[in-house]
Structure formats: C-alpha cells, structure tokens
Amino acid sequence: MTDTATAPTKFGPMTTTRDEPAVRDTDEEPPREPAPEEEPERAREIVFELSDVKVQYSGVTAVEDVNLEIAANEITAFIGPSGCGKTTVLRSLNRMHDITPGAEVLGKITYHGEDLYSGKVDPAEVRRRIGMVFQKPNPFPKSVYDNIAYGPRINGTRRGEVEERVEKALSQAALWDEVRDKLRRSALALSGGQQQRLCIARCLAVQPDVILMDEPCSALDPIATARIEDLMEELKNEYTIVIVTHNMQQAARVSDRTAFFTAEVDDDGSRRGRLIEYDVTDTLFTHPSDPRTEGYITGRFG
Amino acid sequence: MTAPAVPLTQSTRKGRREFKNAVATAFMVGSFVVALVPLTLIVVYVLRAGISVFGLSFLTEDLPFSNRIEGGGMNAAIVGTLVITGTATAMAVPLGVLGGIYLNEYGGSGFVARIVRFLADVMTGVPSIVMGLFIYTIWVLPRKQAGLSGFAGALALGCLMLPIVIRTTEEILKVVPEDLREGSYALGCRKAQTIRRVVLPSAAPGIISGALLGVARVAGETAPLLFTIGIVSTPNWNVFDGPNTALPQQIYINASVFGGFDAAKDRAWGAALALILIVFLFTLIARVISAVYARRSAAT
C-alpha cells in the first residue's frame, strides 16, 4: 500500500545544496484533491521512513524501537506522556540533535528515500527543507519583517523577492492582516499567539517541504490554539506536518495519523521511550489495538 | 459556616515578617550610602582642588618647561591618554570579543577552551605593574630608547584589557537564550551565520558595556605606563614613534616627584579632574551606544 521506493521527491537530492534553486515542480506534485475519508488506502507518498530508530543522550537511550512512515500532505501526530521521547524523535527528523552535545541518532531515517544521516548530507540543507516550530514561541529580537525575512535572506533570496516572500508567508500564517501596519515594530511586542504564528510564518518563508511542530500550542490559550489548528488544516494541502502534542483532543482533531509513544521502565531500571502504536487517527482513538494505548487515551494514566 | 477567628487584615506572622523587611531595607539603604560616600567625597574633593587650574587653557596648552612654574596645561597628557587607550582598545577589544565567541560558541568545555579560560583568569590577576615590566622587557629593552612609545604603553594596557573583554563577552553570550540559536538553525542557518546574525546582535549591548568596562579600567592605569612610554611635554599624536605621556602618569609625577611645588600639586589635581571627566565621558558614550543598539535591534 505504500510506494516508498518510487516516491517522487519534490527537491533534488539533499547532497546537492543551494546551487540550483529548489523550485517546486508542480508536475510532480501529488494529486491535490483531498482524498475521500472512506478511502484512506490510496497510495501515499512517503516522506519519512524510520526503521529501528534509537536516540541516545551521552550513551543513555531515551527512545528506541521506532518504526514508522510519515506520508506527504498529512498531519501526523505524536502523542504520549512526558518523557516518552516524542520530541526526541521529532528532533531527529531535521537533525536538530546535531547541535545537542552528546546526542546520537541510531537506526535509519530516510527522507524521500535518501538517508537523512548519511555523511554527505548537509544538515543546514536538511533544516531548510524540514522546518521546525518550537514549543515556546521564539521570535528573534528583531522587527516582525526582519524575523520573516531572516530565512530567505540567509538562503540567498534576491532582495526584491524577499518582500514578496514575507507578505506571502505572513498571509499563509493568517497573520498578515494583524501585522501589516506593524512590520517595523519589534516582534517581541506581539501577543503569544501572534508570536507563534510569526514563528510558523518564519518557517514558511523558507519554503520548506515539511513542518515539524513541537507542542506548538502548549503555551497558548484555546482561541489562539484554534487559530493554529485551522492554520495547520490549510497548510496540510501544501506541506507535510508532524506535530508533537500533549493534548489528545488536539491530535484527534487535527491529525490524519497518530503515533502513541510511552515510556517504560526496563528490567535493568532504565527508562526508555517506545513507539507503541501507529495508526490512522480515528482507528487509534476508537479501536486501539494495544491496551497501553487504550489506557492512555481513556485517561487511565498519563 | 463559621467565620475564621483571625480577620484577613491581621496576618498571623505579620510582626515577624515586617521586622525582617525593615532590617533588610535598612541594610540595603545602608550599603548604598556606604558605597556612595567615598564616591561623592572623591568627586567633590577632586573638583574643588582641580577647578582652580582647570579651564580651556588647561586642556589646550603644553606642559610648562619647568614643573615649578605655574600655568601650562595637560594637552600632551590628554592626547597621550586618548591615543594610548584608543590603540589598546583597538587591539584588545576585537581580539577579546573573538576570544569570548570562541570560548562560548566553539570551545565549550573542550581542552583548548579550558586552557584559554584558565589563562585569561590568570591574566586578570596579574598586577598591572608586572604587565608593564613584561612589556618593558620584551618590547622596550630590545629597542633601547626608540622602544619608549605610546604603542608600548598601549601593548601593556591591551594585555590588561584582553582578559576582561574575553570573560565578559563569554558571560554575555552565555545568557543569549538557546531558543534563539535553535530557531535560527531550524531555518537552515549555519553556525557562523547564526552567531553573526542572531547571537551577536542580541548580545551587542552587553558586549559593548563589557568592552567599556575594560577601557575605563585601564584608562586610569599608571604603573604599566611608567617604564613603557617615556615622557614628553608637547602632544605626540603618533603612538608608534617617540615617547608619549598620559594623564595618570602626569598625576603621579606632579603629585609625588614634584609634589613639593604648589604649581605641580595643582596641576596634578587638574589632571585628576580631566581623567575623571574622560572616563565619565567614555562611560556615557558607551551607555548611549548600547542603548541605541538595544533599541535598534529590538525595533527594526
């Protein structure tokens, strides 16, 4: 049911960097029409494939036995109790662990069939294609405009084009109308929800392929959360989204597929996160196959 | 429902807490006053003693032919202090900032970084006169008379500034939130770009203050200049060629060596006043720069 091997990549191989502008090849785009809900069996374009992934911090295993496939233009949610390694797995998808001293990713992660951790892959190029939104909004202490323009500028976008990109990204992030008169003001003066949408816009301005979201709404109120969820629903048409969330309702509301992680104490006393179950969201929430998943989603623990 | 026995306005532990508060407040105000007293006394005294000779001519005229003679000005010493401190700053600040960046962003807790950090700490503790002797031995002596120059003094002052700048830069970079760095990396930014475009702008006001702390600290140094710059009575703008002089040196000479003459004593006070004003001006300029920078990086 999945065609990993022949999945067309939207970009050239990651071993070639910036020389060729990564223009989206519209001919190769997967069909845009949203698939009818009763037909989830359609061929999915696989973006990430994780096999036996294990992440260690200074030799201590944080999470292991992660095997899953993440498909294009879907929202994949990682849920589970604190310390189960969901954020750790998320950060391994855009090589954020490279900048954490002592962190090590074992096993294999492929991105459009390419080995993400091959020595020839440029981590900066990986992160340009696979953007990330963090738990706490982290706008740079610059103006709204400069925050969004930052990514395009460092990636060598021509001057004239930057402005266009900024406006487009802010519109996509449903923030344009609120900040169009405040582009020169400090981004730190925005509200928490606006700051988080700014961070999403900042990520979109680089025109990534995938957006990783690490509990993007945990610092926001329900109204701001609803706006971000609506936004994700729209972005899904153009991007692949992976979201880590503590909030099960959120996973149920927005995601197409859900992965449930939990942490277990092994015989030797070490605590390790594991992927327990990965399925279509509706199935996982209504007919979980593992008792641990059922226990978590029904509120028996976690 | 029964009303609580003690009304809300009457806290059960009120007396004790208020007592502690009063003691702490008294202690803080007391420390503030104690710290302020010497500062005020110095400023007032220097002002009173120095104002008699201080004036436009004091700033623009050359030193008199003989120290016994009244009149003349500190022109030469002011020029010397500016060029020597300026040269020292130009050498020590870029090097120190780069060193601080290396320690915090690249070196971490590696072997080289630990050595550099340790040496910087040792260097901070070296007495300034020893630094002067060091420069005297390695720079002045091999060049004989020609070795005495503003540049030799600047070398000694630079050596004193360097560790201060390195360590303050490192401390300031340490408090730049990791979130910002991650945010930049997540956009496909490389490490050097991240440091230049996100980390340094955020830390700039602090780094500027840190550098200025170093400048202010060395501008008043006398000992490292004693055997490195020689002495002149007319301004020498060229740091590299010929002997020079500086305000602290003039204070020292006029107050101690020729201190028996009233004219020299007055000149020493005048020079002290000029030095205080210069350091005050430096501090003010740095404050303005870092305030403007902070506002600009926050707003535009």
Please summarize what this structure is.
The complex is a heterodimer of chains A (302) and B (300). Chain A is of the alpha/beta class.
Largest interface: A-B, 32 and 23 residues
Span between N and C termini of chain B? 60 Å
Instruction: Tell me the strand percentage band of chain A.
Output: 15-25%
The multimeric state of the shown protein is heterodimer
Radius of gyration of chain B, Cα only, in angstroms?
25 Å
Range of strand content of chain B: under 5%
Shape of chain A: globular
Uncertain runs of chain A? 1-9, 18-32, 34-40
Succession of helices and strands of chain A: EEEHEEHEHHHHEHEHEEHH
Structural class of chain A: alpha/beta
Q: Portion of residues in helices of chain A?
A: 25-40%
Total DSSP E strands of chain A: 10
Q: Could you walk me through the main structural features you see in this protein, from its secondary elements to its overall organization?
A:
The complex is a heterodimer of chains A (302) and B (300). With 302 residues, chain A is α/β, with parallel strands linked by helices. Chain A has helices at residues 86-92, 123-129, 144-154, 159-172, 176-179, 192-204, 222-235, 248-254, 281-286, 291-297; strands at 46-57, 60-71, 75-79, 103-111, 114-115, 130-133, 210-214, 240-244, 257-265, 271-280. In chain A, a hairpin with a 2-residue loop joins strand 4 (103-111) and strand 5. The two termini of chain A are 33 Å apart. Chain B is globular. Chains A and B meet through helix 2, helix 3 and helix 6 of A and helix 7, helix 8 and helix 11 of B.
